[in-house]
Amino acid sequence: RLARNSKGSYVMSASTFVGELFRFASDGRFVATIGRRGDGPGEFAKEQLLMFDAHDSLHAVAIGGGRHSVLGPSLTRVERSTVVTARVLDARWVPNGQFLALAPTSQANRSYALQLLGREGVRAIAFDEVPAGAQGPLALGRALAIDRQGGLWSGAFGRYQLRSWDAAGQLRLEAEGRRPWFQSSASDQSPMRRTGPSVQLGGIEFDEEGLLWLFFLVPSVRGGAAPAGGTSGQGALSFSTVIEVIDPREMQLLATGRYPRFVLPFQRGLAYSVEESPSGETDVRIMSLRLRK
How far, in whole angstroms, is CA 29 from its chain's centroid? Predict the structure, then answer.
C-alpha cells in the first residue's frame, strides 16, 4: 500500500512487515520507519490502508477493521487514534473529510458493499446494495476512486460495471460494458473460477485531467516453480495489466493498452508496479497517469 503527500514523500505499508510504515523521499531514498507492532496508539497490528488528506496528515486504517491512526504532516508521530468497527477492506479520502470505504455490512435485512465513514470512523451511510446470497471478493469487491468534484466512484471486481455516487450515496451513473477478454462473474462459485484464475478489475483512478483509468489484472500460468501453497508442476502465476482510459462525462473509451506486469493505482494521477531488478531485488516503480495527446 502506497500514499504520496503534496511534497512528493511516499509512505508504504506491506503485509510482510506488519507493524511498521516505511517513509521514502521523492527520489525513492529510504528515510525512516514509523511505528511498531502492537495494538496501542502509535502501533500497527495489521497492514494499513494509507491516505493523505488536504493538509498532508496521513490516515492509516487497519485492513479488515481496527485502529484508525492519524499522523501529522511531519510523519514523526501519531497525533490521534480511534477504533473503527467497520470491516474496511479499502478506502479513499473524500474532500469533505469522510472516507469512502469498501466495508460490506448489513442493516434492516439488506446487505451493502460501501460505506461513508466520518472522521472518527463512525458510519454515516451504507449504500450500493448487493443481491441476497452474494458472497466472495468477485461479488462484493469494489475498486474505489474520487473524482475532482468529490464524486464517489466504484468498479466491480467481477464484472465490467462502473458506478458513480453523490456525497449522499445516491446513484448518479451506472455503466456496463463487454470486453472479449473479460468474462463477468457473479460470484466466486462460477465455472470460470473453478477452471482457473480469471481476469478481474484491480483498480480505478482519475488522472489530473479528470480522465478515468481502469486497471484489469490478467493472470497467466507459466512453467517453472509452483506458486506459494501450490503443488509441483502447476507452474508460476504471473500477471499483465490491461489499462483503459475513459472520459467519464460521456463514458467514452479513449485509449487502451497492455503492460507486461501488474500495475495498480494508489491515488489520483499515480500508479505503481512491483518488478524484479536485474540484481534480483524487488523494485517498486512509480508511474504517472497521463494520456498522450
Answer: 24
Q: Cell digits for 59?
A: 490516515
Mean pLDDT of all residues in 194-223:
82
Inter-residue contact 86 to 65 (CB < 8 Å): yes
- Length of the chain in residues, anyone? 293
Residues 6+ away with beta carbon under 8 Å from 249: none
Backbone angles phi, psi at 31, to 5 degrees: -110, -50
Burial (CB count within 10 angstroms: exposed 0-12, middle 13-18, buried 19+), residue 98: buried
Q: What is the tens place of the pLDDT at every residue in 161-188?
A: 999 999 888 999 999 988 887 776 554 4
Residue-wise pLDDT for 66-124, tens only, equals 788 888 999 887 888 887 878 899 999 898 888 899 998 888 888 899 999 887 777 88
User: What pTM, to 2 d.p., does this model score?
Assistant: 0.83
Is 235 in a helix, a strand, or coil? coil
CB 141 within 8 A of CB 155: no
Which residue is listed with cell 499483465?
Answer: 240
Q: How many CB atoms lie within 10 A of CB 263?
A: 24
276 SS3 class: strand
Residue 223 has pLDDT above 60, yes or no: no
Residue with cell 451504507: 126
| Strand locations in 87-208 (E) | 90-93, 99-107, 110-117, 123-129, 142-146, 152-156, 161-165, 171-176, 200-206
Distance CA 134, CA 252 (A): 30
